[in-house]
Amino acid sequence: MRKKYLIPLEVLGIFLALIWLAPFYLMIVNSLKTKREIFEDTLKPPSSATFDNYVQAFNELDFLRTFGNSLLITVVSVALIIVFSAMAAYALSRAKSRFSTIIFFVFVAAMLIPFQSVMIPLVTIFGKFEMLNRAGLIFMYIGFGASLSIFLYHGALNSIPRSLDEAATIDGANKFQVFWHIILPLLKPITVTVGILNTIWIWNDYLLPSLVINQEGKETIPLKMFFFFGEYTKQWHLALAGLTLAIIPVIIAYFFAQREIIKGVSDGAIK
Fold first, then answer.
1. Among candidates 160, 195, 163, 158, which has minimal Cα distance to 83?
2. CB 95 within 8 A of CB 84
3. Whole-structure pTM over 0.70, yes or no?
4. CB of 267 closer than 8 Å to CB of 242
5. Among residues 186, 202, 234, which one has the least CA distance to residue 75?
6. Which CATH number belongs to the domain containing residue 167 in this structure?
7. Do 10 and 129 fall into the same domain?
8. Are residues 67 and 139 in the same domain?
9. 77 or 255: whose pLDDT is higher?
């Protein structure tokens, strides 16, 4: 009886999986075609696969430099967000006072402020200090990413007993040692969650880099892809090859880190 109900669910699951995979099929298949083949039939596999599209897209995107820019900005931003947010959340969770509660709710309220409302003033202020560059972009990401990260860390820290802090203090550890050697390792599950959320956001962000980075050769992958698509709007074989190249690093990273990612998300889920 149970198997009878499982069959429709399996069919539905397969159908939804095919719908989800369809855009990837179209992207990869058409990136291997010539321009003429794409306009003849977008669903048909290529008669003879060509990788010339990838070579041209790789060169036009200046892919290695662009990938390096995205990697640098993402890694540094996420690392600083994790460290500063964890330290701030630890201080707010352990210092139980009206002042710390107000500060925490200020961080929470900051998540409700739309970016568009502070976009122009922020860029104007950073422009006056000549920080419209990668360093300024990283600084902005720390500010925008801290609120949600502190909120997540604060919730996780409330489940860690204060007795651990007190025992370490009795053994002679100072506040920094307690946090770095005892508390932070216990926050690994939620740290993975925070890292994933911020990595996805920063790696795929287009709007903020487009406002801040105005130097040639410093573009991130989404920003470079915008210019690339604008240049090759009618040449879909090159545009799709460039798009495929842009998502390959994410797929490779997930493939090697999937075990840690799944474990971290499941352990760090808000229960």
1. 195
2. no
3. yes
4. no
5. 202
6. 1.10.3720.10
7. no
8. yes
9. 77
